[in-house]
Amino acid sequence: MSDTRVRSSLxxxxxxALFSALFARLWYIxxxxxxxxxxxxxNNSVREIVEPPVRGRILDAxxxxxxxxxxGNRITVDRKLSVTERQKVLQRLxxxxxxxVKTLDARAGDRRISPYTAVPVAxxxxxxxxxxxxxxxxxxxxxxxEAIPVREYPNKNLGAHVLGYLGEIxxxxxxxxxxxxxxxxxxxxxxxxxxLTYESDLRGKPGLRQVEVDATGRVLRPLKTRSSxxxxxxxxxxxxxxQRATETALAQGITAARESQDFANRDTFTKLKATAGAAIVLxxxxxxxxxxxxxxDFDPNExxxxxxxxxxxxxxxxxxxxxxxxxxxxxxxxxxSTFKLVTAVAALNSQxxxxxxxxxxxxxxxxPTDPKNPFRGENANGRVNLSRALTVSSDPYFYKIGGxxxxxxxxxxxxxxxxxxxxxxxxxGQPTGIALPTEGSGLIADAAWTKRMHETxxxxxxxxxxLPGDNIQSAIGQKDILVxxxxxxxxxxxLANGGTRxxxxxxxxxxxxxxxxxxxxxxxxxxxxxxxxxxxxxxGFTGVIEDPKGTAxxxxxxxxxxxAAGKTGTAQVAGKQNTSWFVGMTPAVNPKYIVLAVVEExxxxxxxxxxxxxxxxxxxxxxxxxPVVNIAQRTRG
Amino acid sequence: xxxxxxxRRARLQESPLRHLDPFLFGAxxxxxxxxxxxxxxxxxxxxxxxxxxxxxxxxxxxxxxxxGIVVMVVLMFIDYRRLRELSLLGYGATILMLLAVLKVxxxxxxxxxxxxxGAFQLQPGEFAxxxxxxxxxxxxxxxxxxxxxxxxxxxxxxxxVPLGLxxxxxxxxTDVVLMAMVFTMIMMAGARARHLVVLLLLGLTVTVGAxxxxxxxxYQIDRITSFQNLNADKQGTAYNQKQSILTVGSGGLTGKGLxxxxxxxxxxxxxxxxxxxxxxxxxxxxxxGSALVLALFAMIVWRTSRAARLAxxxxxxxxxxxxxxxxxxxxxxxxxxxxxxxxxxxxxxxFMSYGGSSVIVSFACIGLVGNVRMRRFS
Lengths: 637, 378
Hints:
The complex is a heterodimer of chains A (637) and B (378). Chain A is an alpha+beta fold. Chain A is built from 21 helices and 25 strands. Among the domains of chain A are: 49-135 and 143-236, Alpha-Beta Complex (Penicillin-binding protein 2a (Domain 2)); 336-528, 3-Layer(aba) Sandwich (Beta-lactamase). Chain A is 35% helix and 20% strand. In chain A, strands 2, 3, 4, 5, 10, 20 and 21 form a seven-stranded mixed beta sheet that branches. Chain A has a five-stranded antiparallel beta sheet with strand order 12-11-25-24-23, sandwiched between helices. In chain A, helix 13 (340-349) packs across helix 15, helix 13 (340-349) packs across helix 16 (418-425) and helix 15 packs across helix 18. Chain A starts with a helix and ends in a 17-residue tail after the last helix. With 378 residues, chain B is mainly alpha-helical. Chain B has one domain (21-374). Chain B contains 14 helices and three strands. Chain B has helices at residues 2-14, 22-49, 56-77, 80-104, 124-140, 149-168, 172-188, 193-213, 218-226, 237-250, 262-265, 277-310, 314-339, 356-374; strands at 106-108, 111-117, 120-122. At the A-B interface, helix 1 and helix 2 of A face helix 7, helix 10, helix 11, helix 12 and helix 13 of B.
């Protein structure tokens, strides 16, 4: 072989070796370890954008819309604009949107917005603005209008405390989520009311859009999209008409009270403050909430675009009587005479009395060991039995029950804590479990509680012992008995339906966007109790309305007979005007509805609360409606 | 009339055009076409983002290819033996251009390697490839006797001048390619084995010396050292090569499809349309496409080696060997750098990388080889 041939072969071999090396390397990275590089390349360039789902609606019992979504428009600014371009556009946009440039700039730079989507700078703009921006497109490069669902409460303040409102999710709420992929910062979440308690039904599932981005983060093309799943519709047991009637009656009653005299103050003429109140309508057979109102109220629409800070402070201010507080479930009040239902049942249970036991109401009651300090009632009602005592709201009758039970307690006889245990049977001292946030527990004080409080806070609780006065005052719903309106309503509901205590039901059905039933919510029984002498009690409560001496007879003047029973309550509050209560049942026999009203600093029960209940009952029974007036009644009841 | 026809046929049979090699021209044409498509794939998004014509680079590349083909055709019509005389002129011109570029050239990414002539750039280093091939082949084959030590030294000196000027730019990649070319040519010209060993050592010493003496800029040294440790720096050369390997690797067997490469669309590989054009093929057409590109280059190498063997004289043969060595070195270095088996030295992939000088010189080389081949009988 010649030298040249050898050299050519050598070159050939080298060339072959080099090409083989390249082929081998390509095979190695493209075929053998493809998986690894493929994954790395995907991580390099694929970004995920979360698309929020459309929230479910909230409907009333008849399917009428309480909370809806309407199509709103928001203005977005393209991320692809350079900083100077964006600045120029925002400066031109500011006067059109009537927003300061600073605000727009801050919104455009919001880091919570996915960097792969256009940034919204103005939410829910009106049509005129929208038209202007689209007509002057050249002046606003990169500016676009997007249709978005906007939460809408078409009835404004109606049912505000039940419906609640939305707000941006905060880090704590985000952390508390079981499935963190369902929310991200900037998302709206239910903050109160049904919007909060049925959040998981209403929310829906966010969609996911994968996009390919370049090395600088610009979006190149969409990859795959998983559509969002709209939230489910929640049907409440609330009835819009009853709710409206309830709210109107409550508001009118409060307005009327503010023009009326506080009869408890006998020295000078003072008007009632009637700072706040609540009203509830329950379905006696199912425990469903038909109406639930609290005053003062608010418009949940204010929260839709994020509530301005100043307004938020206003809504949370004490001098404005805390409009956001749902007093129907969160308000805790002395029940006053409305509590006599519990005392009566306790007395019958412990056989201190029977239905016919007569008591001479002389206007006061003296406890044997301390006859010098009598417990006074409003009037002397003469000889009364149980039914009569309820009708005329005889305090001494019930003082005696409290006193006698205390005597038993003191002497170690059984049944001495009958009032407290009956109260617990009726559901007091614990939340009812209604699907609304911030529900109060109330308080049923007893010997153990008194001792505990004295030990932890001896300054405010100077007595370690449960004294006769404690039990006697408890018997008429004073002292350390605190109840929420919803607790009191469910207690009277148990009386009305013969002993079933419900956990009030607020919603009965959840349906998906295709109207398919997701789940139905049955009435929830929280407990049952036997109610002795039910007919006696009912006749006593009917007498409240129908007997000439009944405490609420004036408020129910002209109301058809047999259609209502109830109990007035006037609770004394240190340093404040009386709390005005009325719990009614309609009709009087086999009641269908429980109707309750309470007005803080509203004076006597018969004066302010009873007319409110009467107006609601008028509506429930299809009777003609008259504006709620304040009754110039001077009996405490 | 029949006589005229037969006369024309006879003339045609004598014509060198009858001995054209279709494979030699087909492969570069396919590579250039594919290259243009890849340039488009890798630049359109970036250009669109800046509101520029997405075909900007494509149009310029097509102009370069057209010029390259014209140069190739013109080169073929001049008998290569006449190029022998012209080669010294070209060589001299190249030296002058290399000198001038150091003085007045535009600096791009730390290297002073090109002139800006209007909207186009001229890289004298690229032209040095073909003129050095010609002048070295001419010198080595001028005498019939074998390559003695003295003639070898002269040959080395002829090469040392442009090589030295190029390393001053500094353009290490082109120098390495030229050295491989020169070594192969000298070897095939019949230099003694021990001389070749000395030469090999000398080449290594010069390269290492250049790195040590600080002729090279830090970035070039970094490129070579970072080759060992790809995770060393985030945005520098190692990043470039890491992204490059990732891009080729993510293509898989058949690739992600034309315009569907996420790495390419996302501009994840710096310098993709020039030195890293191979990564576009790798990502969008996968192993199949990459292998096809290598096969096309192999085809060029094979046809060039045939031309070298069939050449009528040693000058033609040695010219072909120079071109062959240059293409092999350049393809190996370029694809090797894109796939991570060679350090990053900025050299283009012949016919495919965006860049006028490279494309024109590549076609000129094919013209030279075609010239030698078609005149093998005349």
